[in-house]
Amino acid sequence: MSTDLLATSAETWRDRAADPPAVPPELDPPGRVGLRERNHALWQRHDLRRQRAEAVYDSSRNPVRGWPVSGNRAVLAFFGGLVRERKRSFVLLVVLNALAAASALVVPRLLGSLVNRVAAEGAAVTGLGTLALAVVGVVVLQAVFTFGAQRTSTHFGQDLLASAREHVVRTILRLPVGRVEGASTGDLVTRVTRDVGTMARSVQWGVPRLLISLMTVVLSVVAMLLNSVVLAVPALVVFALCAPAVRTYLRRAPKAYITEGATYSRINTTLTETVEGSRTVEALGLSLARVRAGSDDIAVSAQAERYGMTLRNVLFAALNAAFQVPQVVTLVVGAYGYSQGWVDLGQITTALLYVVALAEPLDAVIGEVDRLQVGAASTSRLLGIAEVPPDREPGDRVPAGVDLAAEDLRFAYREGHDVLHGVDLRLRTGERLAVVGPSGSGKSTLGRLLSGINRPRTGYARVGGVDLVDLPLEVLRTEVALVTQEHHVFIGTVRDNVVLAREDSPDDAVRQALAAVGGWSWVERLPEGLDTMIGSGRFSLTPAQAQQVALARLIIADPHTLVLDEATSLIDPRTARTLEGSMNNLLEGRTVVAIAHRLHTAHDADRIAVVLDGRIVELGSHDELIDLDGEYADLWHAWTS
Hints:
By secondary structure, the protein is an alpha/beta fold. The protein has 21 helices and twelve strands.
């Protein structure tokens, strides 16, 4: 199963009725056969699922275009770094849990002493009141230590979780835009939703509880040995018999959980494509094919889930036996040891209580390790995002001017398939350049290169003599800014959304920016004006209003060169015309590259570049190109006819 979901995306749209089944017949349970044959077939299916999981895991290491997955070392280093940053909290957590565990181990020892005293003194035993008070005191002390440990554990887990989430957000925001657009959205969405949630649960609860359980297990073993080596060793040997099952599980579980995550990504990808292309599905009668594709994805995911479930079932069966047998072994060895005079009744009582008490934290250790395995798999998928190499290495050169020039621009989204072919363009400072042409001609790609989003395959795009892609992003966005027809409204106030580029902007600047794009009239009518909360679940903006907020955000950023890629396409023509007219005064003195299908934008521009098949075939003013009677003239006559 490939992790390069985008590369196989087109395959999900063809009719797969004649294809082999998504799940091989070898993974189907046999019919009516004997118990021996059924058991043999079960392990054959388990082995085949293991091979499939290992294949997915191996392919996730270095995918060609999909999102990579980090190794276990990266996960350990990540969590180790988080813990090292909180040494004091970690030490306090360990100390308090050690004291709580040690307090809990005192009570069985006291009860063992009580048994010996009763056996020695019979009904005339004295001092029971003092012993009872000691037990109560120990229990109270344990409760105090446990409360402090739980409180510290909660703070430690929450702090750890906050840092982990911040790291994920910073990593995602640093991703190259081109890589985000070139990889599977379904996989990325799965990682930043399901995987973040899984990692959060592991960090918040799994790590602290594992520390607590491990501390209890270690101290319990020490207490058992101090009580009686004769009684402790046989029980510990039986506990150790489950080690092979645990080791096998720990070795194979990460691959199982990585495979499960990959199948969830595939399900999300197919579902997203079906929803986004629902009109196409209906128009072309592809409903059954899309349902079949989704069913196949679910069937593949179910096989991955069964592999992980079988691993857990084998582990839990071994653990169940390991937890029950030591009690019997301790009782039998204790009876024989008592008959030989090696141990007394108090030691036997204490040993049995320790064995019973040890099962719970040991079971908790295994349970938390399982939870952490799931969390580690999700974390490795999240950290894999950070392994995506940057698409630029910022230099330290500063532009010596505002002139934007491009020479011999060639660019390919796929190797060997250029969409731009040697484009040369030199912008005049302060001019309005309109880029027009049919859909798919390369207009938007040219805009991306002129705004420094992508690095050209050959040639350069420079501002002030410095390549755009060599500028740090914070510098680049003050030089050249791109606004596309796609926009996003973040959860926050109107003011928050406008001042994203310059957070210290005063309200007057925000009002002027909104007024310049025709948005202040509706903003001032909102219940709380600039303080009105907008975004998901808040006050809902129309597409036109959201686009006006995005344009006002651009004005606040105040770059000297603007690239508008059909920035007003979601606004009705009359509003768009008004908006573009109101922006003219504000854009005075700036260089503007406007990419649009609406040719009235081209009519108002100083120059017009006509792009056809990845080349600029005409360049001049509206009147010059009309007189030329070429491609632009044909477009203009078709537009105005």
